[in-house]
Amino acid sequence: MRDLLPSHRPLLILAPMQDITDLAFWRVLARYGGPDVFYTEYFRVHRDSHPEKYILRSIDENPTGRPVIAQMIGQDPDALRRTALELQKRNIAGIDLNFGCPAPIVCRKDAGGGLLRHPEKIDAILREVRAAVHLCFTVKTRIGFDAPHEFPALLDLYRCHPIDALTVHGRTVREMYRPVVHYDAIERAARLMPCPVFANGDVRCVESARRVIALTGASGLMIGRGAIRNPWLFDQIREAWSGEVQTRPTLLDLRDYIERLHEATQNPSIREAGQVGKMKKYLGYIAPGIGTDDAFWKEVRPAFTLRDLFAVCDRHLSAADPFPPAAAPLLA
Ligand SMILES: Cc1cc2nc3c(=O)[nH]c(=O)nc-3n(C[C@H](O)[C@H](O)[C@H](O)COP(=O)(O)O)c2cc1C
After folding, report:
1. Which ligand 1 atom lies nearest to the CA of residue 228?
2. Rounded to an integer, what distance in angstroms lies between the CA atom of residue 232 and that of residue 215?
3. Ligand 1 atom 13: the closest Cα is on which residue?
4. Is pLDDT at 331 greater than 60 in this prediction?
5. What is the Å distance from ligand 1's center to 226 Cα?
6. Which atom of ligand 1 lies nearest, measured to the CA of 329?
7. Digit-coded pLDDT (tens) for 49-105
8. How far is the CA of 15 from the centre of ligand 1 (A)?
9. pLDDT for position 332
10. Distance 320 CA to ligand 1 centre (A)
11. 224 CA to centre of ligand 1 in angstroms
12. How confident is the model at residue 329 (pLDDT cuts 50, 70, 90)?
């Protein structure tokens, strides 16, 4: 992973997001510069699992020209090992383990964030999978299940294993996506881990990118929702670090991005309601903050047809006014 780190700025990574950061989204994002590294949505791994075909397509048809890390979620060390071996036959730069998903159905099975309650299981998984991975081996973790005070012991555990990079989402599982991120925990990880640490959580604009790097000393930024709202963000961060004039998209540019998302994600086999639903998933991250009192989002929400949805876009996004940056994140 160290080979991928730029010398003068943080490594920029697209966060994995189920059903959102899929192949179609990668295609669109790559046209805006995009991140340095892409993580796949997670492969669900259990005794009888086979890697999901639609996620394998992101690897096999990777349109970005950038390295891809394949993420797995599961709690069975043998199955994770077997899947890691299988995935490594494809064109990937590494394997990542998800120790953070807060979905109750996942945690109940002691996978994802649920594993943070069972350090002994994490220990066994890391040992087994590390031994099978000859590429980069990375971990994405939250800072605890119930409370941030669990994090130092988790870090001690991660330090015992030769992992190549650790991404820290600075929330506990219980905190889900609440608006406060514990950047002090990420700072601790960056200081104590022998491998690069990537900061994750609420990086939404250049200002928050600068602040998170200043607070944590992380080697990279993993960005999810902020990049869906603003696909120019990765380029803007690169520009900020190299002192170049910053790209300033307008609302018309945003309208164009939404159109491209629609073109990339539409599928004749999906009914119109499904396509509108998919677009609303993206717009739920894009629309807040646009128009007085979130007027854009309030009008998008009740749209039933693509025609209605794009009529709302036309009403709100047809001027060359600047696209407003997202609000800066809160500190714990
Ligand atoms: C809808 C959704 C799906 C997600 N899917 C995944 C996933 O597949 N793997 C993973 O590690 N994290 C997943 N996450 C968490 C994100 O990768 C990221 O850690 C989180 O959104 C915080 O970063 P952000 O504030 O930059 O969005 C998901 C988050 C959301 C909101």
Report:
1. 27
2. 23
3. 17
4. no
5. 11
6. 25
7. 999 999 999 999 999 999 999 999 999 999 999 999 999 999 999 999 999 999 999
8. 6
9. 46
10. 31
11. 6
12. low
How many C-beta atoms surround the C-beta of residue 316 within 10 A?
19
Cα–Cα distance for residue pair 130/135, rounded to 1 Å: 9
> From CA 61, how far away is CA 56, in angstroms rounded?
8
Choosing from 17, 41, 105 the residue with most ligand 1 atoms within 8 A of its CB, the one to mutate for a pocket test is 17
What residues are annotated to the active site? 101
Q: Which of 13, 18, 280 has the most ligand 1 atoms within 8 A of CB, as the residue to mutate?
A: 18
Ligand 1 pocket residues where CB is under 6 Å: 15-18, 20, 41-42, 71, 98, 100-101, 140, 169, 200-203, 223-226
Give kind and range of the element (H or E) at residue 241. helix 233-242
pLDDT of residue 28: 98
Report DSSP state, residue 270. Answer: S
* SS3 annotation, the chain: CHHHCCCCCCEEEECCCCCCCCHHHHHHHHCCCCCCEEEEEEEECCCCCCCCHHHHHHHHCCCCCCCEEEEEECCCHHHHHHHHHHHCCCCCCEEEEEECCCCHHHHHCCCHHHHHHCHHHHHHHHHHHHHHCCCEEEEEEECCCCCHHHHHHHHHHHHCCCCCEEEEECCCCCCCCCCEECHHHHHHHHHHCCCCEEEECCCCCHHHHHHHHHHHCCCEEEECHHHHHCCCHHHHHHHHHHCCCCCCCEHHHHHHHHHHHHHHHCCCCCCHHHHHHHHHHHHHHHCCCCCHHHHHHHHHCCCCCHHHHHHHHHHHCCCCCECCCCCCCEEC
Q: Summarize pLDDT for 89-137 with one digit per residue, the tens.
A: 999 999 999 999 999 999 999 999 999 999 999 999 999 999 999 999 9
Cα–Cα distance for residue pair 208/311, rounded to 1 Å = 32
